Amino acid sequence: MERKVCFITGSGSGNGRAMAARMAELGYDVILHHSGRDPESAEEARKAVEKYGARCEILVENLYEDGAAERLFKKFRAVSDRLDVFINNAGKTVGGEIMDMTEEKFDYVSHVNWKAAYFCVKEAGLFMREKSIKGNIIIISSNHHLVNFGRASAYATMKEALVRYTKYAALEFATYGIRVNCIAPGDIDHEYRELTYKDSAAARTPLGRVVPSSELADIAEFLASPTSASITGNTLDVDAGFRLQNYDHDRYKFGGKYYAREAGIEIKSLEDYNKAVEIVTARNNEKGSENPMERKVCFITGSGSGNGRGMALRMAELGYDIAVHHSGRDPEMAEETKTEIEAKGVRCEVFAENLYEDGSAKRLFDQFREKFDRLDVFINNSGRTVGGEIMDMTEEKF
Q: Which one of 4, 30, 78, 166 is least enclosed by Cβ atoms within 10 Å?
């Protein structure tokens, strides 16, 4: 008759609060979490839980910081000796076009929406395994993983990562009887804080409605229940059909800021966007014809060896001047690549930069700008294969 426990990150408000209240209504004791920015809202969430006679604890941790997941679960272990349902709900919506993105903003989006989620799920799995609890883990993603909304490249990429991660976690944790599933909602109407653009949001969906937070709680209840005992590794998209549509009417939002600036016109419609594209394209074509004999340039990261080297040689055969990049670990190999490229009769420059370090992309392109004044083809080839099961993953390796 020991009471089951549900732990929900980002549950001081919004979707997390609705799910917390539902789990309390179902008889779970509930552990709430918030970042510390709004303690009053978290106390309101506690009241919503305790009115069902459930025990409730509130944990505070800023998930943007390194080591946050481990610290949060250390606090959890101090207040609970079991965990039956863990819902990773914490997240932040941060927009911005790719060409305007900074590393600081990217790190913020990545830490909260992806890194913290990865390690919180890991810690939840470790706890359930330690206690021999065949529990449930629910990851909250977003319909951004399917829909290319404007100015959302970083956020949407992290939400897509959560969908993929759900499958890996489900596969690895199945050995311990732990199920892992994902919910990807669209616009949510919180009953206690009405969505300010509810009518316009509803009008954009095939079903003509936004999703009440109570329905999100319904789905969490279902995934945590014995009724879904055979369901694991799945993502339920809950957005009133929004993801099913075509989005030509929103196309002008993508790159709109760039074209507005370059064309010198204000973009308020698809027609404005198309006009701006025509202006910029015509001007670029005119620029491109100013010196037809100017050699084109191809820049390939991770091209000192392997696949990158092969592509660099092929582009050299096609007449491109080549910018080679390597991490600095094997300069001799990079020089051999340069020799082979120059034997094709083209120019070659070699740049060394460790892309693991913060600010490395800007430093690398600063080097490139010193040597070249044009770029026709860029191939992002650098990468590292690092393995490891979720429960053994460290933040350093991540």
A: 78
